[in-house]
C-alpha cells in the first residue's frame, strides 16, 4: 500500500521543521481545483508554491458550500460549470506532488463528496496521488468513524475544525481525533476577507493547545501580510483562502494575456502573505519562546 507519508511531505513534520529551523509559522494557501479550468488552476497552485506557500489546501468544488464566503463560492461554481469533478482533484494532487514533493497537499472538502465517492476509496486514491490528508469543515469527529478508519488505513492527515464556541470537551475530542494540525476558525460564520482577524483567535489557539494540540493553524479572515504576521505570532500556521482566490476571479473567459496578469496579481498577494509569516517572530531569536501579542 502506498501512503501519503511515502509520497509527499507530512504537515506536522513540516510545521515542526519551520518552528525549529526558521522560528516561524507555516503559510497555508487555498485554491479550488478547476477554476477557471483544471489546467489553469494547476498554474495558479504552482504560483503559490513558487512564491512562499508552505502547505497547499486544495478545494473540492461543491454545489452547496454553506461555510464559504462569496469569493470562494463564485470560484467553486465557476469550477463546477467548467466541468471540474472529484477525479480531477486526484490528478491535480499528483501533479503538485511531482512538482513540489516537499509541499504537503491537503484536500479541503465537504463531507458529501467523500461519502458519495466512498471514504475508503477516497482515502486510497488521495494517498496514491501523493496527498497528505483532508480538511473536513462540516464533519465532526464523533460522526466521522468511517473517515477515521479510512485515514488511518491509508496514512492520511485528518484536519478537524474548532471555533470560538467550542467547549472544552469539544476541543479535547477534536484534538484527539486530529492528525497534522487543528484548524482554528478565528471567527464565527463563513469564510472571507476581513479588516481584522477575530479577537478571540489567540485565546482559541491557547485553549486548543491546552486541550493537547501540538499544532494549531488559524484561518478565516486573514487577507494580507500584516494580518498574517499578527496571527503568526501565536499560531503554528496561517491559513488564507479568499485573498488568494480573489485575484483570479473573472466574469467570463480570459485570454492568455489576461490570465498571465491574474497570475501576476496572485504572485503579489502571495509574496505579501509569505513576507508576513516570515516576519511574524522576527524579533525573537530562533528557538526562543514567543510571547503572543493580542490580535486587535
TrEMBL record:
SUPFAM superfamilies reported in the protein's UniProt record: Ribulose-phoshate binding barrel
Keywords of this entry: Amino-acid biosynthesis, Aromatic amino acid biosynthesis, Lyase, Tryptophan biosynthesis
UniProt cross-references to CDD domains, sorted A to Z: Tryptophan_synthase_alpha
Protein origin, superkingdom: Bacteria
Pfam family, one: Trp_syntA
Catalytic reaction equation(s): (1S,2R)-1-C-(indol-3-yl)glycerol 3-phosphate + L-serine = D-glyceraldehyde 3-phosphate + L-tryptophan + H2O
Pathway: Amino-acid biosynthesis; L-tryptophan biosynthesis; L-tryptophan from chorismate: step 5/5
Active-site feature positions: 57 (proton acceptor), 68 (proton acceptor)
Entry's Gene Ontology molecular function annotations: tryptophan synthase activity
EC number assigned by the record: 4.2.1.20
GO cellular component: cytosol
Similarity remark: Belongs to the TrpA family.
Entry-linked NCBIfam families: trpA
Role of this protein: The alpha subunit is responsible for the aldol cleavage of indoleglycerol phosphate to indole and glyceraldehyde 3-phosphate.
Subunit structure: Tetramer of two alpha and two beta chains.
Name of the featured protein: Tryptophan synthase alpha chain
Originating species: Promicromonospora citrea
Gene responsible for this protein: trpA
Amino acid at each position: 500500500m502506498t501512503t501519503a507519508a511515502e509520497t509527499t511531505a507530512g504537515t506536522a513534520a513540516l510545521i515542526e521543521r519551520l518552528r525549529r529551523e526558521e522560528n516561524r509559522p507555516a503559510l497555508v494557501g487555498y485554491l479550488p481545483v478547476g477554476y477557471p479550468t483544471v489546467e489553469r488552476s494547476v498554474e495558479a497552485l504552482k504560483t503559490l508554491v513558487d512564491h512562499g506557500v508552505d502547505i497547499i489546501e486544495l478545494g473540492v468544488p461543491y454545489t452547496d458550500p454553506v461555510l464559504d464566503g462569496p469569493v470562494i463560492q463564485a470560484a467553486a461554481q465557476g469550477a463546477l460549470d467548467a466541468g471540474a469533478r472529484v477525479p480531477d482533484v486526484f490528478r491535480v494532487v499528483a501533479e503538485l506532488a511531482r512538482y513540489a514533493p516537499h509541499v504537503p497537499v491537503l484536500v479541503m472538502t465537504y463531507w458529501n463528496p467523500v461519502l458519495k465517492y466512498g471514504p475508503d476509496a477516497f482515502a486510497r486514491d488521495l494517498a496514491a496521488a501523493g496527498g497528505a490528508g483532508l480538511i473536513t469543515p462540516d464533519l465532526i469527529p464523533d460522526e466521522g468513524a468511517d473517515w477515521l478508519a479510512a485515514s488511518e488505513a491509508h496514512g492520511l492527515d485528518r484536519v478537524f475544525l474548532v471555533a470560538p464556541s467550542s467547549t472544552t470537551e469539544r476541543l479535547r475530542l477534536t484534538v484527539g481525533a486530529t492528525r497534522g494540525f487543528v484548524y482554528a476558525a478565528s471567527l464565527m460564520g463563513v469564510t472571507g476577507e476581513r479588516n481584522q482577524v477575530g479577537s478571540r483567535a489567540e485565546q482559541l489557539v491557547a485553549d486548543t493547545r491546552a486541550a493537547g494540540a501540538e499544532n494549531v493553524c488559524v484561518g478565516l479572515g486573514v487577507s494580507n501580510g500584516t494580518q498574517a504576521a499578527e496571527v503568526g505570532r501565536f499560531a503554528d500556521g496561517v491559513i488564507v483562502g479568499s485573498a488568494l482566490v480573489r485575484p483570479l476571479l473573472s466574469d467570463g473567459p480570459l485570454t492568455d494575456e489576461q490570465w498571465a496578469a491574474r497570475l501576476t496579481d496572485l504572485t503579489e498577494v502571495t509574496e505579501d502573505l509569505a513576507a508576513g509569516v516570515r516576519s511574524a517572530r522576527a524579533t525573537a531569536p530562533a528557538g526562543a519562546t514567543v510571547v503572543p501579542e493580542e490580535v486587535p
